[in-house]
Amino acid sequence: MHFTDITNNSGLLFSFFRSEGPISQKIGGCVAEDFDRDGFIDLYISQGNNGTCHLYMNDGDGTFSEEGAARGANLSINAHGAAGADYDNDGDIDICVSRENPPHLLLINDGTGHFIIDSTTIVLPSSGVTTSPSWGDITGDGLLDLVLGQWDDGNQNLWLFQNQGGGVLKSYEFQTGFIGQPFNNPRVYSPRFVDFNGDRLSDLLVASDFYNSQAYVNVGGGLFKHLKQEDIGIGNETNGMGAAIGDYDNDGDLDWYVTSISINRTGEEPLLGSRLYRNEGKEQFTDVSETALVTHGYWGWAASFGDLDLDGDLDLFSVNGWDGGIAYRLKPAVLFENLGDGTFEEVASSANADNIGEGRGMVLFDMDNDGDLDIYICNSQTTLGGPGIPALLRNDTVTPNHWLKVTLEGQPPFHRDGIGSRVYVTTGSRRQFRELHASTNFLAQEPGRIAHFGLGETTKIDEVRAEWLNGCATILINVAVDQAIYLPSPAAIISASKISLEKEITATGVSAEPLDARRDWIVQGQTYADPVILSFSTTGLKELRFNLYEPDGSTILRSEVFRVRVTAATNTMPDFNRDGDIDALDLHDMLEKYGMGHQDYDLDKDGINNFRDHFIFGQSWGVSDFVPFP
């Protein structure tokens, strides 16, 4: 790997000035996104000490132009973190900016990369130090909700805002899903939406200071269940700061890297450094930090996974720094190259990526659309006591390897960018995936709606598959390398996703474009003309595959997969909470009413009580439609 520092010629001509005190030392964030929809990723950069925030538009030639004032984004506030997403589903990227004191701000994009400031919606938290925002779809309704972290000593340091549609966000109390369950999560730095158990519901992994990092599993209905650190194998880092999420070992689930502090202290307990938690499935993690060789990152802050050498596995980049002592001042950023055997090698110096500038936020993004990932660093200071000069490192790695970038185009009920969905790429025996997101890595957020893949030296992609949150999929086969593609949400329609035995279901793709293309359905090995009426004589999860063909009538243009749950259950869950819907909330109320606490039913006999037991019980009452990711 090799990077070239092009900061001086990039147009990023500003300095970050911070005030005195520990709070100001922690700040410095950004968002990398395409705000004007011209196909190039721009940079929004937050400034502390009431400095002016910057909006640098990508000129498409390796340079940027500052247009914050012209576009209504030049806030002069004590900004902390930022996160960008199309929260109002109108086709453009909006921005949430957290600040030291409320109100926190929404920058609402008018579709052209110009912004309208909303200073009345996000007024919580009302005190303390607000840290990183993240966007995610908690209820799977295609509307992005918002979480804000808070670094404070209080019990509640997660602040949720429910997206009610029409651009309306409403604050609601963070709830852990079961009555009487203890909840304590102080000093939050990086709350991250991620589906770590594969049930298509966005959970929360929260990096927090002083052994306080936590995991919360989404149980439906906007509720979360707190998983104890000791029960699932997390929380070993002394000072959780930033967070990177990715499937570094290509085993089909998402792993969690938490930055922390690493140093041996004379006469005191050593600070053991950053931690890598390998996802073992069934809501269990293993701390593999020592064997993976990724602990040493000085005083770590933001971190991101990305395939920087395009070889088919995720590398890891992290920034660091603190004024608290010589051991942490002006230390180099670290770059861990994935060796493909579960271990990493630190190569920042040889790759010319060892920037010394006390980074806080950072992002990986394809600045120049050449297919590899470049690096932007938000530096808090560059010389001792001096201003912070940003760093833009262009990826100039010479390699025979290939790449692919995938975006999704969702129509209701899906989010426009498919946030929370997963993209799978299969090349021979290798299968990789990315979960699309709009979440922080610490005060900063990269364009997580774009799934970037390194492919190694392969010249053909066997399959690209988008798995949507409702259990449907869109599939392309025999895809060329070295390009950016998009997959639409399914256009065919099925009349029900849950039916009982012998009940009929209708499947039709008559509205799928192109309208004059040949189309058919494949169900249990049988081919049917479109539309088709089906019924099933056995229970279980059934797959219906809709094929749309090229004009030659034989080559598949794309496929869409639908899953139907067939059950023999005739029970009907009562509407316990009388809200007009029969859902997971009614299941929760029923368990409470009849004394079946969540610790008392291990229905799949795997030794732990988790969402799968919840699903099995709900299925018997006909209210659960859980479809795991493949």
Describe the structure.
There is one protein chain. With 630 residues, this protein is mostly beta strands. Helices cover 5% and strands 40% of the residues. The protein is built from five helices and 46 strands. The strands form eleven sheets. Strands 32, 33, 36, 37, 40, 42, 43, 45 and 46 form a nine-stranded mixed β-sheet that branches. Strand 12 and strand 13 form a beta hairpin. The chain is globular and about 75 Å long. The chain starts with a strand and ends in a 10-residue tail after the last helix.
Write out key terms for the chains shown:
single chain; 46 strands; nine-stranded mixed β-sheet; 5% helix; five-stranded mixed β-sheet; 630 residues; mainly beta
Ordered list of secondary-structure elements with their pairings:
Blueprint: E1 3-5, H1 22-25, E2 30-33, E3 42-45, E4 54-58, E5 64-66, E6 79-85, E7 94-99, E8 104-109, E9 115-122, E10 129-136, E11 145-151, E12 158-163, E13 169-172, E14 188-194, E15 203-208, E16 214-220, E17 223-227, H2 229-232, E18 243-246, E19 255-258, E20 262-263, E21 271-272, E22 275-281, E23 284-287, H3 289-292, E24 300-306, E25 315-320, E26 334-338, E27 344-346, E28 359-365, E29 374-379, E30 391-395, E31 402-409, E32 422-427, E33 430-435, E34 444-445, E35 451-456, E36 460-467, E37 473-480, E38 483-488, E39 493-494, E40 498-500, E41 505-508, E42 519-523, E43 526-529, E44 532-534, E45 540-549, E46 556-567, H4 584-593, H5 611-620
